Every structure is written in structure tokens, then in C-alpha cells.
């Protein structure tokens, strides 16, 4: 949590960090990823058989090496919109026998050469956990139960034996399962109403947890600020003794929300992620309201928020049906840094966050046949995933504010937009890490920094221009490392992200 006091622009900004005030655990799952059968995310991204850069499984080794640097705990699959017409059994067994299908989400052709077993193997090689999204569009409950049995079954049953026949004796033990994806959206095959979805989701949840009560089920929310979110939470977060429930464990563990932000103007672009902060706050309140109204006992675990699609994305600029390949700028990198600050500040409520997507599709990592490019947005993501772990600690910022237009427009009415966007964390190693984004496109901000002790390691992400980009063979944005003695004021450069790191007393 970071509190804020508005100053005039003429006053000296102050950033105060209190490492002793540990507020909430940061769930490592906020650094999760997402791979969808969309554009070049799978084929030509993580899976590229025949390329000399790929291993014996067809997995791009350079992609794996890069993603390992992020220490990604969970990866969501196979969508996204793709899952609304995806039938998982098309993607198992001998590749030459798998049917090619028309793909309706992004209007492509799906060969099904990469499916469940390939994804599970890729997760094992990467060292991450799988998170599967169920088809609640054209799919059936029987199909969902069969997929769960195939992945997690241990008994002498049909789909567990089918997995064994396909070469995997031990269960995959997939923990995370989503009850559909964006089924509220008009772009979805089998779009549904909130009333239809809430009933269906709860009935599916009962059956899935009867088959495997250990799994984590994730409800399909919208943006966290809609009547859909209220209704589905109200009707699906119920006490264990509810007449609707036959389960010995809570049926809904997390509530999914999605949001993408963007603007072609820098200041609206870099402040847009504050919409996500307010969305998390409101969705958290709706969870509490459902608990209160439904008399859920305090002994029952409280659901958390799964922000399983987030990023900077302008779908008019990076068209989904054309592969959604984006060339990110420094402005976009700073917006990603503000996104990540939001997740640190709201660590009490966020149980998972998945950047969409992990490779090629609106991604910080791009492939060519010869190698990978780390886009501008890669660098704040790398710094956060490496250092902003452990516990959120108290921070307070006093500075001036940006008072212009915002995107979305409602951000201006519900959130303050300070020139310095800040979060702070204390790691298990005893180090304090403070991430400070100076969103100003014009002014360096000389600031007093309270709470710093001893020598400070400084990581800075910036460039001479907000339009700086790392595509087309250039790397104009990266990480510069330096040292600061912690004395006097510190100057946060204009349009920059700075991470300060020091040993706590």
C-alpha cells in the first residue's frame, strides 16, 4: 500500500519507505504468464520444430532461457478466446492423427500439433505450473471432467489410462482451472448472460471438485467494476452448508478480471493502469459483499482476485486476427511498471496476475527465426520479477500531480495521478526494494527519500525519447545499474523507472 499527499509542483517531492511496516504477502503468482493459440504465440513462439534453435521437443531454447530469467510461477493456457471452441481431445495422441480445425476466435487454422501433453512438458522444462482454461462456450461438463481426469487422475479409469497410453504414467496434478474465459463478451462463441453463467459455473464447480477437491477454481469475472462481477460473486461465493453445494471444500477460490490499457498520448498511457488499481479495490469489495450477504463463515477461505489478462494493448494498433504483434515504446514500458506497482500495492487482494501474452502476441519477448528480441516492456518486468517479492511494505509519497486527461476517462474522477508512482517491498533476503516511476515527460524530480539506510543499488530504465523502441535490431531501452550512498536528495529522471535496493537495518 502507498499513501499520497498532494503538493504543489514547486515543492520538493518526498518518498518515504517504512520497511518495518510489513503489510501483506506478495503472492509470487502475480508474475505469471499466458500462452494462447493466437498469432505466433505457440507456433513460431514457444514451439518451433525444425528450427535449429529448438530442442528435441520442438521447444525454442532461446525462449525458454529468456523466460526462466523471469522465474514465472504459473502459465495460463490455451486461451483466451481460443478456448471457447477448443476441444482438448483434438490435441492429444499421435500428431499425424490429430485433426486440423477452423479456429474461430482469431479466424485461423489450428493443426493441434501442440496440445495438452506438449504444454505440460513445456511447463516442466520451464519450471512453471500449468493453469488450464475450460471451454464453457461449445464445451460440455463431461468434456471438462474428462480433461481433469486426464490431467490429474490416479485411478484405473478411462481418461487417466488414456494419458498413460499417450506416454505419461504419473498425473500432471494441474492445480489451477478457469471456469471459462470472457463468456460475457459479444466476441465470444456462446456468449451468455450473467444469470446463465452463474448457474452453470456453480454446477460445473460442484462436479469438478467432486472429482478432484484439491484444485483451485477461478470464476469468470469481467473487469471487476460491473454488474456481471457483482452477480456472479453473489451467486457463486456461498457457504459450504449451502443447499446448492455438495462439496466439502469451497467451490470458488478466485475471481478473474481482465483489463488492457493504452493511449497514443504518454501521460494518459502511463496513468491508465490506475484503472486496474481501482478495479481491484472494487472487486475486492464485491467479494466482501458476497461474503456478508451470503453469511459465509470466517472459517471459509476468502477468494482472491486473479488478474489473468493484463497488459498495454491497443487492439486497433495490434489487431488480434492479424497476430497482435506490438512494437512497444519507452512510454509503454513505464505503463507496465505502473501496472506492476499496482499489483504490489494491492498484494493483499491479488492471488495471481498473468501478463498477456508471454511470447510474440502483445508480448515483451519477440522471436524471429534467428533469435529473440527483448522489448522495452521486458525490462521493468524483469526487475519486478527479480526483486519485488516477499512482502509489501508501507510507503508514502508527497509530490505534485498530473491533472490532465486520462484513459479511461473515469480514472480522473476516482484516482489521484501523482508524478511519482511508487511501491515498496521487503524480500525474504532482508533487502528493501522501492520501485519509483517518474511519469513526467518533461521534468526530472529531485526528491527526498526517507527510510534508506547504507549504500543503495540503483536500477534505471529510461531513454532519451518516449518513442524509444527495441525492435528492428535496436535496443534503445534496457537497464542501467549504478550506486547511491543514500545521502541527500535523489533525482528521478523524467520518463523513467527507478528501482532502489538496500539492506534493511
UniProtKB/TrEMBL annotation:
Keyword NADP carried by entry: no
Catalytic activity: Hydrolysis of terminal non-reducing alpha-L-arabinofuranoside residues in alpha-L-arabinosides
Keyword flag Hydrolase: yes
Stored Gene3D superfamilies: Glycosidases, Golgi alpha-mannosidase II
EC number of this enzyme: 3.2.1.55
Cited SMART domains: Alpha-L-AF_C (SM00813)
Positions of the Alpha-L-arabinofuranosidase C-terminal domain: 308-496
Pathway recorded for this protein: Glycan metabolism; L-arabinan degradation
Enzyme class: hydrolase
Pfam families in the cross-refs: Alpha-L-AF_C (PF06964), ASD1_dom (PF22848)
GO BP: arabinan catabolic process; L-arabinose metabolic process
Keywords: Carbohydrate metabolism, Glycosidase, Hydrolase
GO MF annotation: an example: alpha-L-arabinofuranosidase activity
Family (UniProt): Belongs to the glycosyl hydrolase 51 family.
PANTHER family (alphabetical): ALPHA-L-ARABINOFURANOSIDASE C, ALPHA-L-ARABINOFURANOSIDASE C-RELATED
Cited function: Alpha-L-arabinofuranosidase involved in the degradation of arabinoxylan, a major component of plant hemicellulose. Acts only on small linear 1,5-alpha-linked L-arabinofuranosyl oligosaccharides.
Protein name: non-reducing end alpha-L-arabinofuranosidase
Organism: Penicilliopsis zonata CBS 506.65
